Amino acid sequence: MQHLKHPSRPGGFSLLEMSVVLIIVGLIVGGVTVNREMIRAAELRRVLKDADTYKAAINTFRDKYLALPGDMSNATSFWGKDNTACPADSGAVAEPGTCNGDGDGHIILSGSAPFISEGTAVWNQLALAGIIEGTYDLDWGAGAYPETHAPVSALSESSYAVDYYGTLSGATWWYDGDYGHVIRFGIPNNNGGTFCPSCFDANPHFNPQDTWRLDTKTDDGLPGTGNIRAAKNDELPATCTSSINAANTFTATYQVDVNTLCLVIFLLGDE
């Protein structure tokens, strides 16, 4: 008996099979994109939460010790002194110990290596007071490193530093206005291991879209005003904001269509 031969199937995929494959690939790519956006959104929320946490920590310290962390003139009376960092300070030597500030009400970060400043002592004293977790080294002379010298952020290798800007007019980097104390955010630029006084805003970590989203959700949405601000001049091919003219403090906007980075600070609200 002769068997009937079934027609052989041509090679390759049918249109239906190709359609199914393309749909699956699209779903995978779409899922990856959505997941990446969700991760980024969570990171941004964490940075905002951190900034609020550290603002509250500084205020708690001030209420408890009647001084600002880092600026406190009798800090070694409470926690002893770091004899390597501040041998001239009064008080018993302690490990890890701390250094006294000048008590003028301003936390100043600037200085030169080997360097111990009020800004470097902020995290050290907040931790010694039990207000934040961790142990932070006072000496930033060889560079500033997240977890070692300051709290680490949810964004890779980025961290925070506290400084005092006061009232600015005609400044190179920032719009005119009242700033008071600020929390800088960024990736430290340690210049090959040397001290960098502006280390936490030397390498920004937010693009204009990120910064606009943060600012709009929680503040006024403008880079030159409010409690979240961005630099007017970031020395990159395209600036983060729409104007590098300090006269436009109240009208400058974020350039959300530009692929660049923004230097971001959070005001403590203590002009």
Helix-strand layout with pairing:
Layout: H1 15-65, H2 75-79, H3 118-128, E1 159-168, E2 177-186, H4 199-202, H5 208-218, E3 228-230, E4 264-267
Structure in words:
The structure is a single chain. With 271 residues, the protein is an alpha+beta fold. It has one domain (41-267). 30% of the residues lie in helices and 10% in strands. The protein has five helices and four strands; from the N terminus they run αααββααββ. The protein has helices at 15-65, 75-79, 118-128, 199-202, 208-218; strands at 159-168, 177-186, 228-230, 264-267. It has a four-stranded antiparallel sheet. β1 (159-168) and β2 form a beta hairpin. The longest helix is centred in the first third of the chain and has 51 residues, at 15-65. The N and C termini lie far apart (101 Å). The model is unreliable at 192-198 (pLDDT under 50).
- Give the end-to-end Cα distance, rounded to a whole number of Å: 101 Å
Shape: globular
Helix content: 25-40%
Per DSSP E runs of 2 or more residues, the count of β-strands stands at 4
Q: What order do the helices and strands follow?
A: HHHEEHHEE
- Counting DSSP H or I runs of 4 or more residues, the number of helices is 5
Compute the gyration radius: what is it? 26 Å
Largest beta sheet: what is the strand line-up? 1-2-4-3
Tag the structure with descriptive keywords.
271 residues; alpha+beta; 5 helices; 30% helix; 10% strand; globular
